[in-house]
Amino acid sequence: MIVRSLQDEGVEYIYGYPGGAALHIYDALFRQDKVKHVLVRHEQAATHMADGYARATGKAGVVLVTSGPGATNAVTGIATAFMDSIPMVVLCGQVPTTLIGEDAFQETDMMGVSRPIVKHNLSVRDPQKIPEIIKTAFYLAQSGRPGPVVVDIPKDMTTPNERYEYVYPKKIKLRSYNPPVRGHAGQIKKAVDLMLAAKRPVIYAGGGVILGRASAELTEMTRLLGFPITNTLMGIGCYPATDKQHLGWLGMHGTYEANMAMHHSDLIIAIGARFDDRVTNATEKFCPGAKIIHVDIDPASISKTVEVDVPIVGPVDSVLKDMLALIKEAKAAVDEDALSAWWRQIDEWRKVHGMRYHKDENGPIKPQEVIEALYQVTKGDAYVTSDVGQHQMFAAQYYKFDKPNRWINSGGLGTMGFGLPAAMGIKLNFPDEEVVCVTGEGSIQMNIQELSTCKQYGLPVKIVNLNNQALGMVKQWQDMNYESRHSQSYMESLPDFMKLVDAYGHVGITVKKREELIPALEKAFAMKDRLVFLDIYVDPTEHVYPMQVARGSMKDMWLSKTERV
Amino acid sequence: MRRIISVLLENEPGALSRVVGLFSQRNYNIETLTVAPTEDPTLSRLTVMTTGSDRVIEQITKQLNKLIEVVKLVDLTEGAHIERELMLIKVKATGSQRAEIKRTVDIFRGQIVDVTSTVYTVQLVGNSDKLDAFIQAIGTGCIMEVVRSGVSGIARGEKVLSL
Ligand SMILES: Cc1ncc(C[n+]2csc(CCOP(=O)(O)OP(=O)(O)O)c2C)c(N)n1
Ligand SMILES: [Mg+2]
To answer: pLDDT tens, A172-183?
Structure first.
C-alpha cells in the first residue's frame, strides 16, 4: 500500500536505510521497479539528499528509515528542512502497535520526538488509511508554507499477507487547513500606493520567493519600479545577482550597501522573508525611518520579530502579480527624482567596501579567490551546495547566482554535514548539470561516509574543500569576542584527504599554490563522470567581512579586522 | 495581559500534545488549560488561559492556528464573555470552626459536598477571582487540598465558536 501510494504520487527516488521495523516496506520496494531506492550510509544523509532534491525542484523529497535509531538519525535532517520550510515526506518504521509503549527493541516515540520540528506528523493506525495518509503527507508538505511531514508506520500496519482495497485519493481536503490562495486586494492597493510614493525604497526578498516560484514576477516588478533590491541568504538567486539593481545580500555578512540601504530607507518591501535575527541585528534599532510592507504566506511570520505597517498574507507569486497589475495601471509613477538621488547615495556606498579582500601575491590562497575561480570555471551556472562556516559565507558572497534554486544551503539551522548529501540528491536528479559542494575540512567530515554512496550510484559531484585547518567560523568569533582564545576550534590530525578519497574510489587533487588553482578546477570539471575532491589549502587567518557588530543596528559593521563603521 | 483563548481541536490522539508542546517550545505561559470533547465527537474544545503582551498573544493565536489540527479559535477576552472555574477544596473543620466555615461557604454560594467529623469538602463555582477570594477568606491554615479545574469560557449573546 505504501509503495503503491508512492508510485501513484509519481515519486521516482526515495532515500533511506533499512531496519527491522521497515522490512515489510523494503520487501515491497524490492518487488517493483518504479520507485528507486538510494541506500545512504547514515540516515541523516538520506534526509539531506531528499532536501537537496526538494530545494532544487520545489517538490517534496522522500525518506524511508526504520524505527528507533534510524528515525533519530534522521532528526537533524528533518529539523534542517523545517527551519528552511523545505517540503519533505519522511516515512519512519515503528514497532508493532501491540508493543508501543513497552520500551520495545528499537522503539522511539517518533511522533513526540519530531513534533516540534515538523509541519505535521501522522501515525498509521489502520492499514486501510495508508493511501489517504500518504496523500495527506504530500499535500501538507508541499502546500502553503512548505515543510517536512513525518509518517510513523508501525510494523503491523504493513503486514504483507493482509489485503485491503486500495484507492489513491486525487485530492485531500482538510477542514482545519486552508492555506491562503490570494492576498487581500485592499492591502495590496495600500502597498502599491506606498511604493509609488517612496523616496528611499528597498526590496528585501527572502527564500519564500524561491519556494513560491515567484522569481520571474519579482524580477519584473523590481525592474519596472527601478528600486534597489537585496535578498537574504535563503533568497539568493531570486533576482539575478549580476544585475545592477541588485545590492547583494543583507544581514550579518551582507554587503555594506545592502545593509546601509536598509537602514536608511523610508520603505522596506519584504517579500517571502521572515526578519530573522541574522538579518535584522538588534530589532529595536532596526531601520528606524522605514515603513514596512510584508508579503508572506504564513500569517505567523508577520510582525513576529519586527512590527510591520502593511501586512499581506498570500502566496508571493499571486500577490506580486496583483501588485504588477496595479503598478501598470496606476496613474502616478514612481518618484524619479527622489529615486535617482537614492541611487546616487547607494552608488557611493557601493564604493566603500565593494567586497574587497586583501590578496598577497606571495601569500596563501584566499578562500574568496577560490570561489571567484569556481564561478569563472563553472560559468556561474552550477548548482552549488554548501556546508556551514566561513566557506559557506564566501561561497554565497563571491559566487554570483543569476537563477533561483541553484544556491543550496542550510540557512535556518546551519547544519554542518548538509553539503555533500544535498549535492548528491541534486546530481542524482540532474545528471547533466554541474553540482558542486563547497565545504570545509570540519563540515565534510560530518557526512564523509557518503563518498561510498556516491560510488555505488555513480554521483560525480565536485567537492571544493576550503581547507583552513580550523573550524574557521568558530575561530573568527573567538578572534573577535574571546581575545583569540581558540578553544577547540583547531582540528589537529586531519585525515589525508587524498588517501581517504582514493579509498572510496574517487579522484583527489590537492591545491596549495595559487597558480595550481584554475588548472585544478578545470581538470576536475573536465572529468565529467568522476567525483573529484579538491582539497584546497587556504589562508587560515582569513575572516568573513562585512560582519555586523553584535547587538547593533543594520548599519553597524566591521569591514575588515580593523575598520569598524 | 490575561487572555482566555478558546480552541476547537480535532479530537485525535496527539492533538493536545501539539498545543501544549507549542506553548513550552515558544516560551508562552499556560496559566490554566481545560479540554473535553464537544457535542460533535470529532471535536474537542480547549480553553487556555494565558498571559503576555499584545504581541505575544497575537503570536500565540497565529501559531495555534498554524497547527494542522486546530480548526478554529477565538480570544474570548476580546469581547463580552462568561468565565467559570470549578474548585473542590478540602478543609479541616472541627469545633467552632465548623460553623464559621459553613457561613463562609454560604456567603460564597458554595456547597459542602462531603462531610466527616473533622473535614468538609466544598465545591465552588465562579470566576477565578472569586475562588481566590474564598481561599483567602477561609485562610490557608485549615486548607488540606485544593483542586481547581482551570478556566472555561464562552462568549455572551449570539456569538458562538463552531464550525
Ligand atoms: C552540526 C553542527 N555543529 C556545530 C556547528 C557550529 N559551527 C558553525 S561553523 C563551524 C565551523 C565549521 O568549520 P569548517 O567546516 O571547517 O568551515 P570553516 O568555517 O572553517 O570554513 C561550527 C563548528 C554547526 N553549525 N553545525
Ligand atoms: Mg575549516
So the answer is: 999 999 999 999
**Residue B123: Cβ within 10 Å count:** 15
* A482 to A67, A277, A475, A478: CA distances (angstroms): 43, 22, 9, 5
DSSP code string of A448-499: GGGHHHHHHHT---EEEEEE-SB-HHHHHHHHHHSTT--TT-B--S---HHH
Ligand 2 centroid – CA A490 distance (Å): 9
Nearest to B141 by CA among B106, B93, B102: B93
Question: Residue for cell digits 581538470?
Answer: A523
Q: Report pLDDT digits (tens) over A390-418.
A: 999 999 999 999 999 999 999 999 999 99
Ligand found nearest the CA of A415: 1
Q: Give CA–CA dist A257/B113, Å, rounded.
A: 74
Are A290 and A267 in contact by the 8 Å Cβ rule? The answer is: yes
B125 alpha-carbon distance from chain centroid: 10
Residue with cell 568558530: A474
What secondary structure letter does DSSP report for A279?
Answer: H
Cβ pair B68:A123 closer than 8 A? no
What's the grid cell of residue A530? 568522476
Condensed to tens digits (0 to 9), the pLDDT of residues A199-231 reads: 999 999 999 999 999 999 999 999 999 999 999
How many residues belong to chain B? 163
Which chain B residues are Cβ-neighbours of A115 within 8 angstroms? Answer: 17-18, 21
A442 lines ligand 1 (CB under 6 A): yes
Dist CA A544 CA A253 (whole Å): 7
Mutate to test the pocket of ligand 1, among A371, A441, A443, A475 (most ligand atoms within 8 A of CB): A443
User: Which ipTM value was assigned to this complex?
Assistant: 0.90
Rounded to the nearest 5 percent, the helix, strand and coil shares of chain B are 30, 40, 30
> How far is A450 from A497, CA to CA, in rounded Å?
14
Identify residue A487 by its one-letter amino acid code. S
Contact A28, A160 (CB under 8 A): yes
Q: How many Å apart are CA A17 and CA A77, to the nearest integer?
A: 14
Please classify residue A428 by burial: count the beta carbons closer than 10 Å to its beta carbon, then call 0-12 exposed, 13-18 middle and 19+ buried: buried
Cell of B95: 469545633
Q: Is the pTM of this model over 0.90?
A: yes
Which residue in this structure is represented by grid cell 557601493? A350
Torsion angle of C-alpha atoms A283, A284, A285, A290, degrees rounded to 10: 80
Question: How many residues are there in chain A?
Answer: 565
Residue A516 is predicted with a pLDDT of 97
Q: Are A377 and A550 in contact, with CB atoms under 8 Å apart?
A: no
